[in-house]
Design goal:
The complex is a heterodimer of chains A (about 325) and B (about 375).
Chain A: H1 14-24, E1 48-55, E2 61-62, E3 65-66, H2 67-80, E4 84-96, H3 101-118, E5 121-130, E6 138-148, E7 164-167, H4 173-183, H5 199-207, E8 214-217, H6 222-234, E9 237-241, H7 249-258, E10 271-275, H8 280-288, E11 293-299, E12 308-311, E13 317-319
Parallel strand pairs in A: 4-5, 9-12
Antiparallel strand pairs in A: 1-6, 2-3, 4-6, 7-10, 7-11, 8-10, 9-11, 12-13
Helix pairs in contact in A: 2-3
Chain B: H1 2-15, E1 20-26, H2 27-35, E2 46-53, H3 55-58, H4 61-71, E3 76-80, H5 105-110, E4 114-117, H6 123-130, E5 135-142, H7 147-160, E6 165-171, H8 174-183, E7 191-195, H9 196-202, H10 205-214, E8 218-221, H11 225-241, E9 246-248, H12 260-269, E10 270-277, E11 281-290, H13 299-303, H14 316-322, H15 327-331, H16 363-370
Parallel strand pairs in B: 1-2, 1-7, 3-4, 3-5, 5-6, 7-8, 8-9
Antiparallel strand pairs in B: 10-11
Classes of the chains: A alpha+beta (about 325), B alpha/beta (about 375).
């Protein structure tokens, strides 16, 4: 019989101490920190960024990643979108009674590895166990603090007509990896999630002196939702070229099969950058090394703004609107 | 692709000498036309009207109400295809039969029902085997494209002697619906782009008969932008020449005889029946019913004791009278979505009043998604 999480693991007694000592200690760069109620952080001078996110993905492990990696990388990426290098993270875990301990070990190891990859430390955490059926395996919440390294505020309100739109890599891999796992599509070879830290690319842009007006990571809702949010927040119109959108062949084929568009699929390691025109060539050259590309421009809006126009590969135009709800495969 | 589409657009412009009104039958084609903005490339005078070929859209509300009632039963696992889960039953009509009742299957799931999404009907077998103490009901929708897969499911279930699997059948046949549209006194359709994937299964025999009976040209057409444009060009050539003939512009997929194995499955498991289409009303020969040897798989007959007030469902006619939704006229090709007073206002994909706003194949959803003319 495999070892499993029991309610007593969250009860505050000896089983909980064992869980922390034997299984969760690997998360912490400085294991003595787990003995204290709060982390004491010697923070460098300068503006800080702070962000939090909850993670509830199913399946917990998917091609190219797992919920642990997602929870560390995802919050670090939110900080990177403010031009900040992630420094420290907190991790709250809600575990479902019956969770195989071996699975928890893999998730914890994955979080520790992702933290090292991001160059951040996990400094405080909490663990609760709920009855079977009251959660879905593992729920994670991470909060992170980071040091802002961008010289100017990176903010949707900095977006100006004439700015250029770039993406940092090809679209839709995470969405396809999750859908394939969820619907039992045996894609050969499998499409792997793009789940990865974004800070190296952002840092590369900053180090090269690229002025950045805005960054937005492409998560649920994909590029379509991200662009829509930016257009609304900045009160502008965005125009993108479908032929310029980087989409890998297996992602495009899977979308054809299920009736989805790569523009609506989730990503976990991609962002859209809005830069002034004079910075576009350099930014594009830097992002192209990771599969990124120029995709469009910012236009003045006739009214309140908020529209995203897409020019198809045929030269026709259509409005791009975000998906309304869950992605559901079509019938035929 | 852009070059070839441009050539076809130029050829169309050179061919059209007077106004024509043609219908693309299939929602997948409607979707491609709007997705790619193909209508922007057509010569003036060539008018496209959007056909009823969206299986999600034409599934009768009564059938959905039955699915919702079954999904609310603790002993039932209700499964169907993805975009069926968002389609409103009759309770969404203005006034609503019951304000508390779930209006779609996602709502039924949120209310505690066991609703599963399948990508293949055969997955229902594993579900039934894994839960022998529960009844697995497959809400079987779609044209001749998906009907053979349901037939295969029932063949296998019968061979396995599965006693806890049944189907709520709503399969429809396309050719009789095309005929019904032509018989409408207000019909404007002068030619059809027929659904290529239906042709892949059924072949061209039924369409030949349609052409002969009604003297309208029909072109079997695919779904890629180049294929839709090539189908349109062929159709306009036939119209201009005054030749009411059948042409196959989807030859890479469609053979005259169709798919014999799939047809044999249909023959084995189903028989042709008159069937109401949501928005269109009853259509002679418009659907499939279970053949006698398979009638014990009928969920309605088997699970009738579980159904509360089977006669209480609001009929389409009732709901249509009290709702601003004009989906019936849209499905008949007599109106386009942006002409509906509710379009983009009280009717959106988040809060659909009619089925064509729900399905990715529905004309209203395609208009909303790709242009949103009214707001």
């Amino acid at each position: 019989m495999a070892e499993r999480i029991q309610l007593a693991h969250g009860g505050g007694g000896t089983l909980m101490q064992q869980l922390i000592d034997q299984e969760l200690r690997a998360l912490y760069a400085d294991p003595t920190q787990v003995l204290h109620d709060a982390a004491l952080l010697p923070l460098p001078p300068g503006p800080l960024a702070f962000s939090t996110d909850g993670y509830v993905v199913q399946p917990l492990e998917f091609p190219g990643g797992d919920i642990g990696r997602l929870a560390v990388v995802g919050t670090a990426n939110d900080l990177a979108m403010a031009g900040a290098r992630a420094l420290h993270l907190s991790v709250a875990m809600i575990l479902e009674e019956g969770l195989p301990l071996e699975l928890l070990r893999r998730v914890v190891a994955s979080m520790a590895a992702a933290a090292r990859e991001c160059g951040l430390t996990i400094v405080t955490g909490d663990t609760k166990v709920v009855e079977r059926g009251k959660a879905d395996g593992v729920f994670l919440t991470t909060s992170g603090v980071g040091l802002v390294e961008a010289p100017e505020p990176i903010d949707p309100r900095a977006i100006r007509p004439g700015d250029q739109l770039l993406v940092s890599g090809d679209l839709g891999r995470h969405g396809v990896a999750i859908l394939a796992a969820r619907y039992g599509l045996n894609l050969v070879p499998p499409v792997l999630s793009d789940c990865a830290p974004l800070w190296p690319q952002v840092q590369g842009l900053l180090a090269a002196g690229v002025r950045i007006h805005c960054l937005r990571d492409l998560t649920r809702g994909g590029l379509a939702s991200a662009l829509q949010e930016l257009a609304v927040a900045a009160g502008v119109e965005l125009a993108i070229e479908e032929a310029c959108l980087p989409v890998a062949e297996p992602v495009a084929r899977t979308c054809d099969l299920l009736g989805f568009e790569p523009l609506h699929l989730a990503n976990e390691g991609r962002f859209v950058a809005v830069v002034p025109p004079e910075a576009a060539d350099l930014a594009c050259a830097l992002l192209a090394t990771g599969g990124g590309a120029w995709i469009g421009t910012v236009r003045p809006a006739p009214g309140a703004g908020g529209q995203v126009w897409l020019t198809t590969a045929l030269g026709t135009d259509r409005l791009l609107i975000p998906l309304s709800g869950e992605l559901l495969p079509r019938i035929c | 692709m852009a070059g070839r589409v441009g050539e076809l657009a130029a050829a169309l412009a050179a061919t059209v000498s007077r106004p024509w009104t043609v219908m693309e039958v299939c929602g997948g084609q409607t979707h491609a036309i709007l997705r790619w903005g193909l209508d922007q490339l057509l010569p003036p005078g060539l008018r496209l009207i959007h056909g009823p070929g969206c299986p999600v859209c034409v599934t009768p509300a009564e059938r959905l109400d039955a699915a919702l009632a079954l999904a609310a039963q603790p002993g039932v696992i209700l499964c169907s295809y993805g975009d069926m889960l968002r389609v409103p039953g009759s309770a969404t009509a203005a006034g609503g039969a019951d304000p508390v009742a779930a209006t779609d299957l996602l709502g039924a799931r949120a209310a505690g029902g066991d609703v599963r999404l399948l990508t293949s009907p055969l997955e229902a077998i594993a579900l039934a085997q894994a839960a022998p103490d529960r009844q697995v009901v497959f809400l079987a929708v779609g044209f001749e494209t998906t009907a053979p897969a349901t037939a295969l499911l029932l063949c296998q279930a019968r061979a396995l002697g599965l006693a806890n699997l049944s189907v709520l059948l709503a399969h429809v046949r396309v050719a009789p619906a095309m005929e019904a549209l032509l018989l409408e006194p207000a019909n404007q359709v002068q030619g059809f782009l027929a659904a290529g994937h239906v042709g892949a299964v059924m072949g061209t025999t039924e369409l030949h008969q349609l052409v002969q009976r009604h003297r309208v040209p029909v072109v079997v057409t695919g779904f890629e932008p180049v294929e839709v444009m090539a189908g349109l060009l062929r159709l306009v050539q036939l119209l201009e020449a005054g030749t009411p003939a059948l042409a196959n512009a989807y030859g890479r997929v469609v053979r005259d005889r169709g798919n014999a194995a799939a047809q044999a499955l249909l023959e084995e498991v189903f028989e042709v029946t008159d069937q109401p289409w949501r928005g269109l009303g009853p259509i002679a020969g418009g659907g499939f019913a279970l053949a006698p040897a398979y009638r014990h798989f009928d969920a309605l007959a088997r699970l009738a004791p579980l159904m509360p007030n089977p006669g209480s469902a609001v009929s389409d006619a009732t709901s249509a009278a009290s709702s601003p939704c004009i989906s019936g006229r849209i499905l008949q090709g007599r109106a386009i979505p942006s002409e509906c007073p509710a379009f983009g206002g009280s009717c959106t994909p988040e809060h659909p009043l009619g089925a064509p706003m729900v399905s990715s194949e529905g004309a209203c959803a395609a208009y909303y998604r790709y242009r949103r003319q009214a707001a």
